[in-house]
Write a structure and sequence with these properties.
Distance between the termini: 18 Å
Strand content: 15-25%
Structural class: alpha/beta
CATH superfamily: Phosphoglycerate mutase-like
Number of domains: 1
Order of helices and strands: EHHEHEHHEHEEEEE
Largest sheet: 7 strands, mixed
Number of helices: 6
Helix content: 25-40%
Length: 208
């Protein structure tokens, strides 16, 4: 399905929409001061990685670009913008309170928004393109919905991803993404609030 390569993935820092607890979708909500601090806190995480990213890919939204730029202050590697890694367009729900956004929880298409099937296909296309062409490891700076879409491609769900928490995806030994029905990566989690703590993310995915 998707090239079985090692890569890193991180959700952007806190945005004004996050702080207000509203659905942003494709709205370009800027990072809050706290969000910028979160991205800077990732510096220590990055500095202590054994295998550091050699390329950063981010969506076209400033919240992802700014997070990537701050992280790259220590990596100093090339950066690529790829709109296929953007959050889903939430249609009429953009700007709505999270409490009104149950469509996202059970993957029901949102009124006048991007169809979930199209969103999943877009994320698949982006993953195939970047992991199929770059030796890596690549760091993808994107959005919570992109994490959800990635796992949903394998029939899995995730409980949620916090802002600026780095995840490392390492191919599971002996796994073949074309034939393996389960998620074919081992996932490791790096918490910027405890920068030297690396743990296996056993609860990262659950069966849908």
């Amino acid at each position: 399905m998707i090239p079985l390569r090692r890569f890193y993935m991180i959700r952007h820092g806190e945005t004004e929409a996050n702080a207000a607890q509203i659905m942003a979708g494709s709205l370009d909500s800027p990072l809050t001061p706290a969000g910028r601090d979160q991205a800077r806190a990732v510096h220590l995480v990055i500095e202590n990685l054994r295998d550091k990213p050699t390329l950063i890919v981010h969506s076209q939204l400033s919240l992802a670009r700014d997070t990537a730029t701050i992280i790259n202050e220590v990596l100093k590697v090339p950066m690529i913008e790829d709109a296929d890694f953007a959050e889903i367009h939430a249609g009429d729900l953009e700007g709505a309170p999270w409490t009104d956004c149950h469509h996202f929880d059970d993957y029901r298409d949102m009124p006048n928004g991007e169809k979930f099937d199209d969103f999943f296909a877009r994320v698949r296309r982006a993953k195939n393109r970047i992991l199929g062409s770059e030796p890596g490891p690549v760091l993808i700076v994107s959005h919570g919905g992109v994490f959800r879409a990635f796992t949903k491609l394998y029939g899995m769900s995730i409980p949620g991803v916090r802002n600026c928490h780095l995840h490392e995806f390492i191919p599971s030994p002996g796994q073949n993404p074309e034939t393996t029905p389960t998620f074919p990566w081992d996932v490791w989690h790096y918490d910027y609030e405890s920068a030297l703590h690396r743990r296996r993310a056993e609860d990262f995915i659950i069966k849908s």
